[in-house]
Amino acid sequence: xxxxxxxxxxxxxxxxxxxxxxxxxxxxxxxxxxxxxxxxxxxxxxxxxxxxxxxxxxxxxxxxxxxxxxxxxxxxxxxxxxxxxxxxxxxxxxxxxxxxxxxxxxxxxxxxxxxxxxxxxxxxxxxxxxxxxxxxxxxxxxxxxxxxxxxxxxxxxx
Amino acid sequence: xxxxxxxxxxxxxxxxxxxxxxxxxxxxxxxxxxxxxxxxxxxxxxxxxxxxxxxxxxxxxxxxxxxxxxxxxxxxxxxxxxxxxxxxxxxxxxxxxxxxxxxxxxxxxxxxxxxxxxxxxxxxxxxxxxxxxxxxxxxxxxxxxxxxxxxxxxxxxx
Lengths: 158, 158
Description:
The structure holds two protein chains of two kinds.
Chain A: H1 5-10, H2 13-49, H3 58-86, H4 88-91, H5 95-116, H6 122-125, H7 132-154
Helix pairs in contact in A: 2-3, 2-7, 5-7
Chain B: H1 3-12, H2 14-21, H3 25-51, H4 61-89, H5 91-94, H6 98-121, H7 129-151
């Protein structure tokens, strides 16, 4: 029988090397990048929700933190892909994993909506309390990122 | 006191038994631990970057350092509580694990370094070279703490 794409992926030299030797190192690096991604996004969300950093402008925090977020996100994607390759045939049936990917997709949509539409009026609420739409985006983002972390942890428990 | 006997006693206590009997308690506590870790690491990263003149530089150094350190202490309480629960749940996994003790040793040093950074920053407007070096060492230790934490799951315990 023809091996599936996921079987092929798992049997590439990289997939085998990560699975047999490098998994703990790749996983720790993933935790490191994930910490910066969620930590920096939750910081921006906290500003949107009025929970912290109220003395700093929204645009200032976004401009200074989001480049850090993106670098760390790139690192998370690379390390996450390597981990996936080590055990692809199991991960595609792992419910927390699939749920996590779905949540990341929703987070992407939330971010697009926020940056393309909500953020256009940022000058009106840059200094003070963000608009209802901006606060809603912050709340959705915070909730879903916490869920992403829980799903990520649960991948190893099922 | 004999560490093995302490571990056996701890594992037999009602709180430990309750966590062990549950299928969701350990991943839930770990998720709380990871969220707190993400916020701690990002707060520490922003504090260290501030000494390099990067990141959130709008606030005066003294104010920013005091605020950041206070956040770190608060988050360390959450980490200590969730961590203590995880040890209670599975004493054998941590109490005889060299990765756990490496993590605690690095944590002790990073606490001292953070105290020093916050104390010395309180009276100054511009960071010194020594502070920058200490801030960089602190970041390396936080990275080491994350790796050692994840390696608790992989290192052979005695």
